[in-house]
Amino acid sequence: MPTFAAPDASAHPLHLLRPDRLDSWLSDQSTHVQRWVKANGFTGREGEVCLIPGTDGGVDAIAAGLGDTSAAARGRFHLASIAQKLPEGTYKIASHGEAEDLQEHALGWLLSRYKFNRYKSGEPHSAKLICPDGVDADRLSAIAAGEFLTRDLINTPANDMSPPQLEAAARQLAQNHDAQVDVITGEALLEKGFPLVHAVGRASADAPRLIDLTWGTDGPALTLVGKGVCFDTGGLNIKPASSMGLMKKDMGGAATVLGLAHMIMALKLPVRLRVLVPAVENSISSNAFRPQDVLISRAGKTVEINNTDAEGRLVLADALTYADEAKPDALICMATLTGAARVAVGPDLAPFYTDDDELAQALQHAAKAVRDPVWRMPFHTPYETMIEPAVADLDNAPGGGFAGSITAALFLRRFVEHTAKFAHFDIYGWQPNPLPARPKGGLGQGARALLDALPKVLNL
């Protein structure tokens, strides 16, 4: 679990400075420090680090640049990039500018400690930070641990993260928090009313399954549903190699809700939590579902299959129906669902859909506060006709190429009839290029914003 260092009187002071505050800070320093900083050309630009020596020749303090206000607007977690440049030792933030930046700095430091080392060993990060005064260290550690879980699950390749192994990860999480897990596997999915989950996963060597984790006995009911497609070949509508290369991350929705579940349980939020993960592999075999098949969902709605590569919305449809039957106080769906969402907002923003304005406002406010960007997209009802084919109730992949993320969201909304507070996230779950606190690879999106918004959403 990522943690802060214990208080240490000998910790090196870390001064986080912007260019417009450098002169003011220098005026309060000794002549030695003033001369050293100026001689090294330190200006406070973003990512700049100046190690200030003491009389014994060792590091006495550090001046680090945050950049100007435009740098703050163009990026986040600037301390994370600085942390990578610091020598071994323990540090405490001595100068930091705005007080509201402290939580971001502290969380960024913890997130920068992440390293995926399952298959390749590496040197651990040796620099340590004492949690700043006024920052909840336990909360940030729980958040970082949940994010690390999400990243580990996404980064693990499909040969080690199949449906049974995703189930094992959920069971381990439940064991860690005294939660309960029930799993419906293989042919039992048909017997218990999950035909779409079964249809998508039946061609795989690993049986499809529905993972159902529950925790808590008091408070409002919160259900999280995460797409758990452990690998997606595209099925009989096989993906080209260029599109299949990252499909180990197609269970990113499941990884994100499991990471969020860790945060909720570690912080002991007063909710009745449920996590549903339809875990499948969309494979190719003689019994794979086919284009033009018409499948009957748990809800009784018929679905014409016009592309077997639009499988995520199928498994989610059954899971959402099951979740909605219990009428939870809030229902959140997370999925790496469409490439159209990436075209619309790129990899950094997590687009979400909801008809509940209060939920949307709470999410948007929280996202800004915790630096976890989200963007509301429209449930544009006039597009409903695009998902209504001639031969069935619904089309899983309407043609035309327009509004792909919206039509996928509208498809999912058809399976939520009793829960007013419903939101669907169409996330990417991947960091294509390294950025501060976000190395290249698996990435949780929207979880921190949701965690921060829950008290308002659920009146906790």
TrEMBL record:
Pfam families: Peptidase_M17 (PF00883), Peptidase_M17_N_1 (PF21337). CDD domains: Peptidase_M17. GO terms for cellular component: cytoplasm. GO terms for molecular function: manganese ion binding; metalloaminopeptidase activity. The keyword Protease applies. InterPro entries: Leucine_aapep/pepB (IPR011356), Macro_dom-like (IPR043472), Peptidase_M17_C (IPR000819), Peptidase_M17_N_1 (IPR048816). PROSITE patterns: CYTOSOL_AP. Keywords: Aminopeptidase, Hydrolase, Manganese, Protease. This is Leucyl aminopeptidase. It comes from Litoreibacter roseus.
